[in-house]
Amino acid sequence: MVRVPAAGVAAVGLVGGYAVARYTKKRALGGAVLAAAGAVAAREWQAKAGTPTAAALVGLYTVGFGASHPLAKKIGAWPSVFTVAGTVAAASYALAERKG
After folding, report:
1. Alpha-helix residue ranges (DSSP H) falling in 50-76
2. What is the pLDDT of residue 99?
3. What is the pLDDT of residues 44-92, one digit of tens each?
4. Most exposed: 1, 13, 53, 89, by fewest CB within 10 Å?
5. Distance CA 53, CA 41 (A)
6. What distance in Å separates the CA atoms of residue 31 and residue 76, rounded to the nearest whole number?
């Protein structure tokens, strides 16, 4: 099976999910992108770093998505999404990518 960089998948899921929701005006479609990328990233995190690390990174991915909303009120929508995506990608790299 082909291994993909989970850090990139997670970041693309957060940015892509927001972009799809914003530009199609269909939040559910953006959520589907977010969920699909999260599932792929979770599979990679589990394979590379084990279940506890994968669970922590899935939690961060989910919390990051939720935290981007109030953060957007302070710094703007796109800066918020990029901040959260970068944070999740950095954590993914630090906790899972270097091990796999």
Report:
1. 51-75
2. 59
3. 999 999 999 999 999 999 999 999 999 999 999 999 999 999 999 999 9
4. 1
5. 12
6. 20
73 burial (CB, 10 Å; 0-12 / 13-18 / 19+) is exposed
Which residue is it, tokens 């999910």?
17
Two structure tokens written together for 64:
């990051």
In whole angstroms, how far apart are CA 69 and each of 1, 15, 20, 46, 100? 35, 13, 16, 27, 32
Q: In whole angstroms, what is the distance from residue 19 CA to residue 41 CA?
A: 19
- Taking the C-alpha atoms of residue 78 and residue 52, their distance in angstroms, rounded to an integer, is 31
Give the separation between CA 93 and CA 96, rounded to whole angstroms. Answer: 6
* Domain residue extents for the chain: 6-97
